[in-house]
Every structure is written in structure tokens, then in C-alpha cells.
Amino acid sequence: MLYSRQFKCRYLNIPGCGGNLFSSKLRLQEYSEFVDYDYSFGLIRNPLDRVASIYSSFDDIFKLDQTFFDWIKNGNIAHYIPAQHTFNTSGFDMGRFEDIHGDTDDFWYNVCCELYLQYRPFKKPIKWAKRNYYNVHYDAHHANIVAEIFKEDMETFNYTIQLI
Questions:
Q1: 162 lies in a domain?
Q2: For labelling, which of 6, 64, 132, 150 has a CA lying 20 to 30 Å from the CA of 163?
Q3: Do 107 and 96 contact (CB within 8 A), yes or no?
Q4: 3-class DSSP state for residue 107?
Q5: Can you say whether residue 80 is alpha, beta or left, with left for phi > 0 and alpha for psi between -120 and 50 degrees?
Q6: Is residue 164 included in any domain, yes or no?
Q7: Per residue in 37-67, pLDDT tens?
Q8: Residue 67: which residues within 8 A CB-CB, separation 6 or more?
Q9: Are 134 and 49 in contact (CB under 8 A)?
């Protein structure tokens, strides 16, 4: 859990779902004893995008010369990435990472309104927020492996595989 004393908010930090993005904007930090907050929010993300994003964030030493497909086949995903549906989201305003697109109807705009912040879109497009960005990383076989590992997330949050 990440908190901002300045904005009196807490962010449910599900790995691969925008924690770094919001941490920089709201100066979020981990506080074990901080409980004075007015707004709670978090993001979920398409499991296929999450997996591709997390793999891309690993440094080359951690990747151990494994390609993205090798990393999927070797079963490393479930070890490093907890399923989203296992997080307790009750009491949180949950948005979809895919709904951060720079318009006044996106989730970031809603967060700004709740925190009484002046809305400023992110300066550059968020490449991972583009819907179905995972298409450039997967073939059908590997997409199905990831979808099966995160089957409950796919069903719980109504995500589907839509390869081009």
C-alpha cells in the first residue's frame, strides 16, 4: 500500500499496474502507520499487458538471457506476479490501466477531481496503456499460456485475448 500525506490518499499498489506512474505524480510512499486518508484508489490491468510490462522492466541481469517467450514457458510468471483478484479492493475506487488516455473522461482525471488537483494529462503517451498493446509481444500460443495462468483475473475483470 502506498500513501500520500500531502493528498491524504492511499494507492493499492498491484505490481505492474501503474504504481511508478502514480508515485511520481502524487509523491506516494510506503507508510506502515499512516491511516489519515480521504480517498483510496488503485488500478487493475489486462494480465497480458501486465506480464509484458513487468518483463520489460527487469534489467538484463535478472532476465538471465531469457527471451520473453522463454520466461513465459519456464513458468516464472506466477512466481513474480501475484494475481490481481487476490488483492482486497473493497473500499477502493478501482480503475483500469487501459483507461488512462489523456482525456477528461479517463481515470486519472477522476483521481484529480477526488484529490482537488488541477488536472494535467501525462506529458507523453503511456505506451503500455494503449488497449491491446500486448499484441506486439505475443503469439496465440504464449497469450493462451498467460491467460490460463491468470484465468481468474481474466474472468473476474472481463478481459479477453484479442490478437491481431
A1: no
A2: 64
A3: yes
A4: helix
A5: alpha
A6: no
A7: 899 999 888 888 888 887 777 766 566 677 7
A8: none
A9: yes
Overall number of domains in the chain: 1
* The three three-digit cell numbers of residue 159, written as one number: 478481459
Domain carrying residue 41 = 2-156
Which residues sit opposite 2 in a β-bridge? 11
Residue 8 lies in a domain: yes
Q: In whole angstroms, how far apart are CA 115 and each of 5, 8, 89?
A: 12, 8, 19
**Residue 88 CB burial class (10 angstroms; 0-12, 13-18, ≥19):** exposed
Cell of 51: 506480464
User: Which triple of cell numbers denotes residue 105?
Assistant: 473522461
The whole-number average pLDDT for the span 112-120 is: 89
Cell numbers 473500499: residue:
91
C-alpha cell recorded at residue 18: 501503474
Q: Is residue 66 a part of any domain in this protein?
A: yes
d(CA 94, CA 92): 6
Summarize pLDDT for 71-104 with one digit per residue, the tens: 788 776 776 677 777 888 888 999 888 777 666 6
